[in-house]
Write a structure and sequence with these properties.
One of its GO terms (molecular function) is sulfuric ester hydrolase activity. The chain is α/β, with parallel strands linked by helices. The protein has 13 helices and 13 strands.
Length: 497
């Protein structure tokens, strides 16, 4: 039964997955991946083709979702666990204050792990986080027995079960094998099972905000057997390798099961890619399962839906794996909005090409809910970009001209700027620069940094990056040039404890 108040304020369903590439949608032209339910959300909604995560790893990406802020403001410019989350205003907190029943099920990846971040309730499965399994040096000792609700649920049904039973690593793995238990016990199914139960037990007098947050297709690559079988004989395209990529592997880094770079044995890589695609189709089918339940509860036409990922997966592109780097496979993410009740006037089936970022989720959701957007929010509401009114001519809506992204990763630390058509990259510790024309070279096969006919554009983008980095505590620029080799940090000083 739908709630009476929901006629004034719609429910909001935010679906996030972890480590899904932007191009892994059938409707976006992927030659292998099958995503029928996500395709339908696109067909009857709007897809943003130039959506990025400014800091492509789990922790900083989620900070952008929670706060609506750029990485410079929320302060997480790389991956670092165990730094307390003390943000005054958060997306679920603002909605709760406005009368929403707020719930997160799945991955939050905050610290301490049971920090509600404004939610009324959380049911957690953050995946295998090393600091929770190896916590002897952590001030706030949090073991899995305290913080992982999925594992407790699983052990009640499968005594002695553990997240390590398959022998697969939780991060940057190139090894895959099928899920070993009944599909209903898979963490992807668990998120949906608990989300459907939330529909049963929610407060019927309030609209709800449900963040359904999946760990997959993040490693381990462990799809149920039926989904692995779906891709077993598929013609898996080979990973793309640019003219700038390292093509030798003298130290055999690609042989490691948790490599970030190198030449992975061909059969192992093909199996890992197939399992990655299988995890995405499994996710798609489970999202379809939840949408059916949403309809059965009478709430589908009163629920605004958003779908995205916190970052992508390089998946062997340029002989690289995982995330954190600025290349399209890592930083470019899927972003879909859908409004079954058509209260927002979206242009159904539209593909919008403006550069949007995860910080835009918070102001967009608050606008839908009729909730004031806090002044500290730096993102913008995306609905004006997706409106059917835009097809009637006139000036396009005002929007950002570019995005500044970054990630601290030791010698591979980078800063980059893009407008979705061109991209300039600077490696802050080595001084290496790259330039890609994404219009003519969307796969970033050619580094055009030395091309004579590109020098004016390169100077332009370098100047934009200098402007973005002006005043930063690391001293990356003096306002005139980029300064290589400055000491870096994953967390800026204003949020350190």
């Amino acid at each position: 039964m739908s709630s009476p108040k929901s006629q004034e304020q719609p429910n909001v369903l935010l679906i996030t997955v972890d480590q899904m590439r932007f191009d892994c949608l059938s409707i976006a032209g992927h030659p292998v991946v099958e995503t029928p339910n996500l395709d339908e959300l696109v067909r009857s909604g709007v897809r943003f083709s130039n959506a990025y995560t400014a800091t492509p790893s789990c922790v900083p990406a989620r900070a952008a979702i929670f706060t609506g802020q750029s990485q410079r403001t929320h302060g997480r410019v790389g991956y670092q666990d165990c730094v307390p989350w003390n943000y005054k205003e958060t997306l679920p907190g603002e909605l709760a204050k406005a009368g929403y029943h707020t719930q997160c099920i799945g991955k939050m990846h905050v610290y301490p792990a049971r920090n509600l971040m404004g939610f009324h309730n959380v049911m957690l499965h953050d995946g295998y986080l090393h600091h929770n399994r190896n916590n002897h040096n952590i001030p706030m000792r949090e073991h899995y027995d305290q913080v992982d609700d999925y594992l407790q649920w699983l052990r009640e049904r499968v005594p002695g079960a553990d997240l390590l039973d398959l022998g697969l690593d939780c991060n940057a793995s190139t090894v895959a094998r099928p899920w070993h238990l009944a599909e209903k016990y898979h963490p992807t199914n668990w998120v949906v099972t608990q989300s459907i139960d939330f529909l049963r037990r929610r407060d019927p007098g309030k609209p709800f905000f449900l963040w359904m947050s999946f760990v997959r297709p993040h490693p381990p690559f462990d799809p149920p057997q039926a989904y692995m079988d779906l891709y077993d004989e598929a013609d898996i395209p080979e990973s793309i390798v640019g003219d700038w990529a390292e093509t030798s592997d003298p130290d055999g880094a690609g042989l490691s099961p948790t490599t970030r770079r190198g030449l992975v044995p061909k059969r192992r890589l093909s199996k890992a890619i197939a399992a990655y695609y299988a995890l995405i189709t499994h996710l798609d089918h489970q999202i379809g399962r939840f949408l059916q339940a949403l309809n059965e509860y009478g709430e589908q036409n009163n629920t605004v839906i958003m779908f995205t990922s916190d970052h992508g997966e390089l998946l062997g592109d340029h002989n690289l794996f995982g995330k954190s780097l600025p290349y399209e496979g890592s930083a470019h993410v899927p972003f879909i909005v859908n409004d079954p009740g058509n209260r927002l006037g979206l242009k159904r089936g539209m593909v919008a090409d403006q550069v949007v970022e995860l910080r835009d989720i918070m102001p967009s959701v608050l606008e839908v809910a009729g909730v004031p957007v806090p002044k500290a929010v730096e993102g913008d509401s995306i609905w004006k970009l997706a409106s059917a009114q835009n097809e009637n001519g006139g000036a396009p809506p005002a929007w950002r001209s570019h995005l500044h992204g970054e990630h601290t990763s030791g010698i591979l630390s980078t800063h980059w700027v893009t407008d979705g058509k061109e991209k300039f990259i600077w490696y802050s510790q080595t001084g290496e620069e790259q330039f890609f024309d994404l219009t003519d070279d969307p796969q970033e096969l050619h580094n055009a940094i030395a091309d004579e006919d590109r020098q004016e554009r390169i100077r332009y983008w370098r100047s934009i990056l200098i402007q973005e980095l002006a005043g930063r505590e690391e001293g990356y620029t003096d306002g005139m040039q980029l300064i290589t080799g400055r000491e870096q940090t994953a967390v800026l000083s204003h949020i350190r404890i």
